[in-house]
Design a protein that fits this description.
Layout (H helix, E strand, L loop, with lengths): L12 H10 L21 H10 L5 H10 L3 H5 L6 E2 L4 E4 L8 E4 L2 H9 L16 H14 L9 H12 L4 H8 L4 H7 L4 H14 L3 H11 L1
Antiparallel strand pairs: 1-2, 2-3
Helix pairs in contact: 3-7
């Protein structure tokens, strides 16, 4: 299982030191240790294992979370009235920051929604009925059985943010999809795979002169 590669963390330690000194605190005072970042993305093989091994009652939640970056509570509360198949959007009316959030459907999410039974009651829940604690317990049991014991349901939201980041989606757009007001919060959800970091490092290689070119230039300048 991949560790939390490349987690981008906003640090403000130097500013805190400056404030502490101004307030009369000893200049050599040690600041409390910063809490380690939590959450991670899924490697492709992990995502495949999760989707292949999920039971029918959990599978729709996993797909929807990966395709929208929505929180567990937002998915549990989703009603058919919040789904606009014509506009291909899903609206989450009850979010952590109090605002509603509308996200576009991916092709994968649309296929999932089309496959689900759609009652006449527009206030009916979209996804299978679960109580929040029971859903968490069932997901925990699933990932243990699949050999992914450190994976939490909320990590699917981290995975969506990381996937968008590595695809080059602008930060402002990712904030809108996740429903974040503060970019520092979005940074906590963004993780970079080792392959992505390696590709980024190759950009430095492409800019550098080849050893042969560098040697020729040195000889020519001698």
């Amino acid at each position: 299982m991949p560790p939390q590669y490349g987690h981008r963390w906003v640090r403000c330690g130097s500013a805190s030191i400056s404030v502490a000194v101004t307030a009369g605190a000893p200049a050599g005072a040690q600041l409390p240790a910063e809490a380690p970042p939590s959450g991670r993305y899924l490697a492709p093989e992990e995502q495949q294992k999760l989707l292949s091994g999920a039971p029918a009652t959990l599978w729709p939640y996993i797909v929807a979370a990966l395709q929208t970056g929505a929180r567990r509570g937002e998915l549990l509360a989703l009603r058919w009235a919040d789904v606009d198949m014509k506009a291909e959007t899903v609206t989450f009316p009850k979010t952590n920051n109090g605002d509603s959030r509308t996200v576009p459907m991916t092709d994968t999410l649309r296929a999932l929604l089309v496959s689900l039974p759609r009652p006449l009651d527009r206030e009916a829940r979209v996804l299978p009925e679960w109580e929040p604690p029971a859903l968490t317990v069932a997901f925990g049991r699933l990932v243990r059985d699949l050999g992914l014991p450190d994976l939490r349901f909320h990590d699917l939201r981290h995975d969506a943010a990381s996937t968008l980041t590595m695809a080059g989606v602008p930060q402002r757009t990712i904030m809108a999809i996740l429903g974040h007001r503060d970019p520092r919060m979005t940074l906590r959800y963004q993780h970079l795979s080792p392959e992505h970091l390696r590709d980024a490092a190759r950009a430095l290689d492409r800019r550098a002169a080849t050893p042969e070119t560098a040697a020729a230039e040195r000889q020519g300048g001698a």
